[in-house]
Amino acid sequence: MQVFVCHRSAVARRTKKFGVSHVLSLLDPGKRPFLHPSTDRRNWLLLHFEDNLEEHEPNSPTKNDVEKILAWGRGLPQDAVVLVHCEAGVSRSTAAALALLVQRFGREHIDWCVEKLLEVHPTACPNPLITRWADELLGCDGQLFAAAEKVANDKIMSLLK
Questions:
Q1: Residues 15, 38: contact at Cβ < 8 Å?
Q2: End-to-end CA distance of the chain
């Protein structure tokens, strides 16, 4: 499985460029994705929630949302080329991509999965709610969440310099 990440307006271009076979769209309620015409709708998952950091905020990502992402990921073929996108391609999408990678390659390879994510999307700043739910659902004992938080904190610190 290969995973790519982008923002909403780049989906059609990236789908064509990378030969994407599966698309995961994570958008604000009411937003529509820009899919390439070749996208097979059976290979596409669209979820609507906002990029909130707190569970109690309206339209925050839920454990159920992350369960849907992981269930979709379990159905991906070994040779899937997956494009995960959200509005900006920074937080929701990178958290979901990291969860899919850890699910596929195993919790003992979290650091490697983080490296792969940063190779394809250096501006990743994974959403903490998504990574927390994924950590719990994948039985990572806090390791996935901690790794994602380190990526996010490193990005924030680099912006402050």
A1: yes
A2: 35
Q: Return the SS3 of 16.
A: helix
Q: 115 in helix, strand or coil?
A: helix
- According to DSSP, the residues that pair with 66 across neighbouring strands are none
Q: Which of 74, 75, 66 is CA-nearest to residue 47?
A: 66
Output helix, strand, coil percentages for the chain, rounded to the nearest 5. 50, 15, 35
Identify the H or E element spanning 152. helix 143-160
pLDDT tens readout for residues 74-131: 999 999 999 999 999 999 999 999 999 999 999 999 999 999 999 999 999 999 999 9
Which residues are registered as beta bridge partners of 47? 26
**151 in Cβ contact with 118 (< 8 Å):** yes
Distance CA 70, CA 51 (A): 18
Residue pair 55/127 in contact (Cβ under 8 Å)? The answer is no
With 0.90 as the threshold, say if the pTM is over it. yes
> Residue 75 — φ and ψ, nearest 5°?
-90, 0
* Interatomic CA distance for residues 34 and 152, integer angstroms: 27
